[in-house]
Write a structure and sequence with these properties.
The protein is about 40% helix and about 35% strand. The strands form 2 sheets. The chain has a 4-stranded antiparallel beta sheet with strand order 4-1-8-7. A hairpin with a 5-residue loop joins strand 2 and strand 3. It is rod-shaped. It starts with a strand and ends in a 5-residue tail after the last helix.
Length: about 240
């Protein structure tokens, strides 16, 4: 059994009956006890109107390893100086301790071991374990984390830096090779352009020279010009 505190709220009761059909319920109350504990709770006697009585009372019970997980509720009717037993109910709250949840419900009242068709009591039960057990339950071992020493950290940093430098150098070499290829390509195009230009110029010059040679008249013999001059024909 987990140690802790059981919170009990006794809310109301309804459809109670006396054994004698000639007597009516007047002022019911309840007593609550847990086996193995010295604590016992007794509610106030509330007027019984409209087949029900409202209590709205709270109590607590300390639970330890030796405590029985059974709670007994006895309902009585206070009739003057008499206290008449109207029935009881036994609640097993072991599942409530495991689930750690509040439970509010109507519980049937039995009389003489027999369940009454309508008599019932409404209660709320809530269990809270002790703080020490809460801590023991929730604390989990911290996973071991490898802490690198200073030399290892430096070594890893240098390795990472070397990898980055190698990648940068490789990138630069690739860029230089690409630049050389581009320069060679443009240089080849320039040379071819010059060769083509020179060839055209040479052809044009040779053709013009040929045409000029064809247009020139052959020189006249010197004797011919002298004879014309003497004849008075040359100007």
């Amino acid at each position: 059994m987990v140690a802790g505190t059981l919170f009990v709220d006794v809310i109301e009761v309804e459809h109670l009956k006396r054994k004698s059909p000639f007597k009516t319920v007047k002022a019911p109350y309840c007593s609550i006890v847990i086996a193995g504990t010295a604590n016992k709770f007794k509610s106030k006697a509330a007027p019984y109107h409209g087949m029900k009585s409202l209590w709205n009372e709270k109590t607590t019970f300390s639970i330890d390893d030796a405590t029985s997980p059974k709670l007994t509720v006895e309902v009585y009717d206070k009739d003057g100086s008499k206290e008449v037993n109207l029935g009881s109910t036994i609640l097993d709250f072991s599942n409530l301790i495991k689930q750690e949840k509040a439970l509010e419900a109507w519980f049937p009242i039995r009389r003489g071991g027999k369940k009454d068709q309508k008599s019932r009591v409404r209660m709320t039960l809530r269990f809270e374990p002790t703080q020490s057990q809460v801590g023991e339950k929730k604390v989990e071992p911290t996973p071991e984390v490898e802490v690198a020493s200073a030399p290892k950290i430096v070594e890893r940093a240098l390795t990472a830096t070397g990898l980055v430098m190698n990648e940068a150098e490789s990138a630069l070499e690739d860029e230089e090779k690409a630049a050389l290829k581009i320069q060679a390509l443009f240089r080849g195009r320039s040379i071819r352009k010059k060769l083509n230009t020179a060839t055209v110029s040479d052809v044009l010059m040779s053709e013009s020279a040929t045409n000029a040679d064809e247009d020139e008249e052959p020189p006249a013999p010197k004797g011919f010009f002298s004879r014309l001059c003497r004849a008075g024909i040359c100007a």
